[in-house]
Amino acid sequence: MHPFVIELLQFTLLLGLAPAFAGWVKVLKCRVQGRTAPGILQPYRDIRRLFGKDIVLAENASWIFRFTPYLVFGVTTVAAGIIPLLSVDLPLSATADVIALVMLFGIVRFFTALAGMDIGTAFGGMGSSREMMIASLAEPAMLMAVFTVSLASNSTSLTQMVSVMAHSAFVIRPSLAFALAAFIMVALAETGRIPVDNPATHLELTMIHEAMILEYSGRHLALIEWAGMMKLTLFFALGIAAFSPWGISSGGDIGSLALAFGSLVVKLTIGALIMVLIETGMAKMRLFRLPEYLGGAFLLATLGMIAFFILE
Amino acid sequence: MPASLDIAGFAVLLLLALAALAPLLRRQRTIQIPLAFSLSAVASLAAVVAGIMTVADGSVTAATMSIGLPGLPFHLRLDPLAGFFLVVIGLMGLFASIYSVGYVKGYGGQRSMTQMICFYTLFLAGMLLVILADDAYFFLVAWELMAAASYFLVMYEDEKGENRRAAFLYLLIAHVGALAILLAFGVMAGQSGAPGFDGYTFDAMRGARMSSGWAAAAFFLAFFGFAAKAGVIPLHVWLPEAHPVAPSNISALMSGVMLKTSIYGICRFAFDFIKVFPWWWGGVVLALGLISAVMGVLYALMQHDLKRLLAYHSVENIGIILIGLGLSMIFAAFQLPTLAALALVAALYHTLNHAVFKGLLFMGAGAVLHATHERNMEEMGGLIHRMPWTAPLFLVGCVSISALPPFNGFVSEWLTFQAFLLSPALPHPLLKLLIPLGAALLALTGALAAACFVKVFGVVFLGQWRGHQKPEHIHEVGPSMRGGMLLAAISCLLLGVFPTWVIGWLDTIPEQLCGAKLAESAGKFGWLWLTPVAHERASYSGPVLFVGILAVVTVTWLLLHVRATSVSRVPIWDCGFVKLTPRMQYTASAFSMPIRRVLGFLFAVREQVEIVPHTNHPANPVSLQYRLRIRDRFWNWLYAPQGDAAYWIARQVGKLQQGRIQIYLLYSFVTLIVLLVFLG
Amino acid sequence: MTHTFAAQLNSLLAALILLSAFALLAQRKILGLVHIFAWQGFFLALSTAVIGYASGEHHLYISSLLTLGMKVFLLPYILYKLVYKLKIHRDIEAVVNIPTTMLLGIMLVVFSYHLTAPIRELSNLMTRSTLAVALATVMLGMLMMVTRRHAVTQILGFLAMENGLFFAATSATYGMPMVVELGVALDLLIAAFIFGIFFFHINTTFESLDVEQMAKLKETD
Question: How far apart are CA A146 and CA A96, in angstroms?
């Protein structure tokens, strides 16, 4: 299959299935916690409903407030074209390596934080301020985890990492084990899940990400919610590509792509289960306990790097 | 086509002529200001052209002038490294000159414009001459010219005591630095073995062969002197004092360009004069760069004065440039020329980027200051509605300095990260472990810078007006100020979207200094993709990202507006809370509170809250006062003791002044006897 | 199980031992410390068994069982009983705060890596690279004793040091002679009993096990 067709397939897959993945996470969480779950297709209904609603803007909202949802959605979509989901034969994946990908998510965070400050409420400023603090502590940990992973494949390009790991012999690498633990901790912080932030909270004083988007409505909110679901899926995809890429095809034929899709579904299911167990087992941390949490992630990643040099 | 050295010389002469002839027009202010600054812009443009030509063909031209000392006439030399810095100075000079036409008019008739114009042109000329100088004497003359002109510019509003103190501190540290540079030149001239004053030419210094002890002495003296001028921690204390009090067009030039002349000096000393050095020199530079970067951005986060915050960010970015230089020196010391070239290109690219985006930010701050007459961020807010041009241009600066794609700050930080991640190629086992920890610190710096600029843009431009005075008089600034900022913003975008061309242009510099070219591998996968080492290793495409994001945003907008639902404007929602006042917004200190709580142990932070309780219920206070004081610990550790020691020595020496005639006669008598004993 | 697979498994266990040493530094609750110490003992026992299998030194199997019995079951049980009898369920305060302790820990690991570099050149054993981890564990145990104020953490730091020394012995020379190991095990057990007696005395004298209180014993000021 032509590489551009694979690229298009990946875009549609991610845009189309990210809400289903978010729905599946919600269903799992509810089942584990003994509640009745909404259907797995509920996020689709939510997004469609929001697209149909009117927009209600505050009087002093500026063009940044109106522009941010489109930018957030656009950047997340571009990021979707970079992480190899089905095949490494992806022409756009040379656009950004892992570091650039992390910075792309940084654009999303920057503009969302600006939108939080735009209206001039206390909650928006609070969300922006906390989000930037968490981001600044999570970045070193993320970088160390990425670096440790790149040591094994001698590259920061995602397709290269996938190719090297998928085709080399099975080796137990303690450095990757540490890096995986660190990556999971940082990914929970970046996607705003427990124990860092509660995505389902209704209390404004406990919000971090929700507080920044409190004033959004209508199609703006639909775009932001959809981008949030895509970001969650993309972080899972990043983890899968970096730590367990077996199954991602190196060619473009239909058979291997179907196999890749199957293995992706299986890995996403297992990953969602792990995340739900973590979210259910831990409580949301106090904001000022987070430096210890993120420091722990940084420590794990550094240990992974040291383990690579010492033990491998 | 005239030679590039001639064009550069023309630029300098034009600026000097302007300085000399500006007083003639001091009565006709309406002609004097636009004419003078337009001609400065022309001179800067000439410098840019000369620089581009030199770097593009990698040529080295030299000339000797007839003026100068009897045994040491002034030597001039233009090689690719100098050409690059000419571009940096000229580009920012161009933007700042265009901006100054409108900015300087804002001073009304209250001050002498001639003074501003004379010193401005002398300042630019001094910086250009520093880059062109090819012997130690000319270099120091030009250095002093630059320092003195900028001192007078910093002192421009000298009726306030704090401005005079800031300028004095600046001059003091600049001269301590110049002394160190002079000593470094002296060491090199002495070791060069050339007779008479010939040892002071840079050619003689290039050929000098020194023992490692003398080489280290020369380099570290020079590094100390240049670091004092660049604002590296712990020699940074003058930067946040001097840059805010200067007029904003000058701050843009000082922060954007003057600090870079120190980088030029360090590059010259390390890569051109002393070509072979041990790795620990690079280690020292890297360590100081990391400390400056982290401490600089943390200091910046604690500020609420807009220009002081930007000045601390200059400390941070100089730190990032030194990180690149340090890595380059380490790789060069281990004979890895391609990696050294990559790190050097990262450092130089960041030099250019920082000049442009810091200039843009200072120009924006000047526009805000011009419109609101306020420097305190806590008194601003909602300016995006009143200054619809300044806000997006300032936003471009904020996004660039936060190293977000597709703007230019990202490219140089990405290249620096790639240089860091190549450190496993080093043969030294301990360095292999420690250098990646530096990469983590750089990531921390980048994220903290983004946090700081969300704070700056959010508090100044977004939200509602927080100040005590009425905001009705605030309006957008004039066309020349907007023009200068617009040009800088466009440069930020172009430098970010076309990195392969810039690196291809820059390539003669690492070829001459490190012995390896980068552009072959950088553009090998196609001009669209930047692949510094190999495309399997890492790749980035600025144009594709930019076009991709733009395309998706446009398509989404169009699709959603086919059948658009209506937009209604209502009062703020805030979860149904009705009695909202602008005082309930987050302020700058509030925004940085979490980070201050976590990382503030590096500073002396004192927070005080005074509550005057109400008589009927403790929940309704009559008044509530919050005081925050943050001190730079370096004052107490380094500068206050030295100041005290200086005063103590002065007091001891002052005991010589007894005031009685017999004692003075005794001094003369004793001196006479001593001379007779020793000469007899 | 092939030789290289055993070597990799050993590396993984070494990494887990190092991780548990850091976890001991980071943990605040006393019972959590005892549990982590038990896990460290478990990884150590497993590692000894793996080395015993790969190197063919069968006395290491006995060492492994001894470690399992003592460090995973007996000593944690004794400490558990002590904690309950003395009713010390509180959190531990630290002399230096935890992030700084972590940074010091990382510096110590880098230092021990640097220190053991010559031995790595000379040795041709399968376990030469894990010597750095062993030395780091000893140092981290010492760091724990220095930076914590509670008496139980002092003994845990001492026991962690002993773990590190044992691991160093298996890494450097495939274990010590059997007699020596039995003697060391007996010494540990006696040390645990003596510590128990001391804890009772300290607790009755000062009503707390905070070792800073012992500064009151100073005669001069």
Answer: 14
Binary contact (B434, C113; C-beta < 8 A): no
The alpha carbon of B585 is separated from its chain's Cα centroid by a whole number of angstroms, namely: 32
Residue pair B416/B350 in contact by the 8 Å Cβ criterion: yes
Output DSSP code: residue B425.
G
Chain B environment of C112 (Cβ under 8 Å): none
CA-nearest of B594, B398, B352 to B495 is B352
Segment B497-556, tens digit of pLDDT? 999 888 888 888 888 888 777 777 777 777 777 887 777 778 888 888 899 999 999 999
Total domains present in chain B: 2
Q: Label residue A108 by pLDDT band (50, 70, 90).
A: very high
Residue B673: give the domain boundaries. Answer: 635-679
**Residues 6 or more apart from A173 whose CB is under 8 A from it?**
A152, A308, A312
CB B74 within 8 A of CB B21: no
How many interchain CB pairs under 8 A, A with C? 54
Q: What tokens appear for B569 in the block?
A: 């404007």
pLDDT at res. C92: 64
Partner-chain contact B433 C117, CB within 8 Å: no
According to the model, what pLDDT value does residue A121 have? 87
Kindly state whether residue B368 falls inside one of the protein's structural domains.
yes
Adjacent-strand bridge partners of B609: B626
- Asked whether residue B384 is domain-assigned, the answer is yes
Q: Which of B216, B57, B60, B200 is nearest to B141 (CA)?
A: B200
Average pLDDT over residues B264-286: 90
- Please spell the DSSP secondary structure of A107-132, one letter per residue: HHHHHHHHHHHHS--HHHHHHHHHHH
Two structure tokens written together for B24 = 């003639």
Helix axes B161-192, B136-154, angle to 10 degrees: 180
Total count of residues recorded for chain B: 680
Which regions in chain C score pLDDT beneath 50? none
Could you give the 3-state DSSP secondary structure of residue B623? strand
Q: CA-to-CA distance for A7 and B472, rounded, in angstroms?
A: 52
Cα–Cα distance measured from residue B46 to residue B5, given in angstroms and rounded to the nearest whole number: 11
> Could you tell me how many CB contacts below 8 A there are between chain B and chain C?
9
The set of chains that have 3 or more CB pairs under 8 A with A is B, C
Q: What are phi and psi of A155, to 5 degrees?
A: -160, 150
Q: Determine which of A50-54, B520-524, B645-649, B668-672 has the lowest per-residue pLDDT on average.
A: B520-524
Q: What per-residue confidence (pLDDT) applies to B384?
A: 92
Non-local CB neighbours of A206 within 8 Å, separated by 6+ positions: A198, A284
Region label for A65, one of left (φ > 0), alpha (ψ between -120 and 50) or beta (otherwise): alpha
State yes or no: cis peptide before B388, omega within 30 of 0.
no
- The last residue of a domain, from among B497, B513, B532: B497
Task: For residue A58, list its beta bridge partners.
Answer: B570
Local structure of B231: helix, strand or coil: coil
Three-class SS state of C51: helix
Inter-residue contact B349 to B415 (CB < 8 Å): yes
A115-171 pLDDT, tens digit per residue, is 999 988 888 899 999 999 999 999 899 988 988 988 888 888 888 888 888 877 777
Percent of chain B with pLDDT over 70: 99
Assembly ipTM: 0.94
Cβ distance C8 to A172 less than 8 Å, yes or no, reads: yes
CB A227 within 8 A of CB A72: yes
| Domain closes at, from B473, B497, B521 | B497
A136 in contact with B, Cβ within 8 Å: yes
B129 in a domain, yes or no? no
The answer to whether A291 contacts chain B (CB < 8 Å) is: yes
* Beta bridge partners of residue B630, listed in sequence order: B605
Q: What dihedral do alpha carbons B588, A140, B431, B284 form, nearest 10°?
A: -10
Among all chains, which residue has been given the structure tokens 């750095």? C132
User: Phi and psi for B601 in degrees, rounded to 5?
Assistant: -65, -15
